[in-house]
Design brief:
This protein is mainly beta and 335 residues long. The protein has helices at residues 3-32, 38-42, and strands at 52-60, 63-70, 76-81, 84-89, 91-95, 100-111, 116-123, 126-134, 140-146, 150-167, 171-191, 194-198, 201-213, 217-238, 241-254, 269-279, 281-282, 287-297, 313-328.
């Protein structure tokens, strides 16, 4: 037999052995209820220790942890975090590198690091039950029930703006501004990947408008309070990363910050389109969401009044870039 044929034979035998071992490993872990497909199994390791068997070490909601399978109790797991442990009871677990979810059965979960307790029932992969906050004596301080499709919160924001101005041939205008905003939030989750977000907001803006005509040049400082109602679809793209798109309904009130409030006139109501991105940072009791949003006005903001420079403005469009910090009461990531 030639060396080449012998080499191919050895490689083929080695592949067959590896395949058989992998199938045996997959079948073994599957029978224990730790993985539901071959892709999950490839990422798992199991090392035997007595009296506890180490099943796997990987990342769960961004934190490293280890799952131990307790001998003598087929439906019990202990999850060890760097700052505490979680005791879990359940059956028929589905697992991947970033989450551990029971397909059916009941979980009793206790987070020793922050005294949180869950009584959760899963039916066909959906979660039902309650989430408890306990004191040092084990008394219930707070309850949360599942499924919970809605969340509430508030936000603070900062923004920069400019105006796209189309004016008459004898007038040149430019405008920039900055502002800040506060408001609250209502989230309603339709699917794991789709959430409707309503974000009622009160924002305060100060615009510096430079006007140049054939005979003179001057600057106008104009202040606005804008009541906004963005209604946005939040699309979950990858894990906690989200894409934002939707309309915003706005009502503007001139606050008379300019020396001559009637020198430049705008309409009270307008419509804008928003796009943006956000990321959810899940903490034990609430979620922080940094959000970056770009807004462009769809309707003409200019009010054609025969006063000062308003009569020379043909079209006025507001562009705005806003960074928001959202705090909402979701708390602990779904398992």
């Amino acid at each position: 037999m030639s060396p080449l044929i012998s080499t191919f034979k050895n490689v083929f035998v080695a592949l067959i052995i590896c395949f058989c071992l992998n199938e045996a490993k997959s079948q073994y872990i599957y029978e224990q209820g730790y993985a539901n497909n071959e892709t999950d199994v490839r990422d798992w390791e199991h090392v035997y220790k007595h009296p506890v068997r180490l099943v796997n070490a990987f990342y769960f909601t961004g934190r490293p942890f280890v799952i131990y399978k307790m001998d003598g109790d087929k439906d019990s797991l202990k999850v060890l975090f760097p700052n505490g442990e979680v005791l879990i009871k359940g059956t028929k677990f589905l697992a991947s590198r970033d989450k551990l979810v029971p397909k059916t059965g009941v979980w009793e979960v206790y987070h020793t690091n922050n005294r949180l307790k869950e009584h959760v029932e899963f039916r066909k992969g959906k979660r039902y039950g309650e989430y408890l906050k306990l004191d040092d004596q084990g008394n219930v301080l707070k309850k949360k029930f599942y499924p919970q499709n809605h969340d509430f919160g508030f936000h603070i924001s900062g923004s920069v703006s400019n105006m796209s101005i189309e004016s008459g041939k004898d007038t040149i205008m430019s405008a920039q501004g900055f502002g800040w905003a506060i408001g609250f939030l209502i989230d309603y989750k339709f699917k794991d990947w789709l959430t409707l977000r309503v974000l009622p907001t009160t924002s305060f803006h100060l615009f510096q408008i430079d006007v140049q005509t054939a005979v003179n040049r001057e600057s106008i400082t104009k202040g606005y309070t804008i009541l906004k109602l963005p209604v946005s679809g939040i699309l979950s793209i990858y894990k906690n990363f989200n894409f934002i798109i939707g309309p915003s309904f706005n009502h503007s009130i001139s606050d008379g910050a300019s020396a001559d409030p009637i020198i430049f006139s705008t309409k009270s109501f307008d419509l804008s389109a928003d796009v943006g991105v956000s990321y959810n940072f899940d903490l034990p009791l609430f979620t922080i969401v940094p959000e970056l949003r770009y807004s462009r006005q769809l309707t003409n903001w200019a009010d054609f009044k025969p006063i000062a420079y308003s009569s020379s403005v043909d079209r006025l469009i507001r562009n705005q870039l806003t960074f928001s910090l959202i705090f909402k009461g979701t708390g602990t990531s779904d398992w």
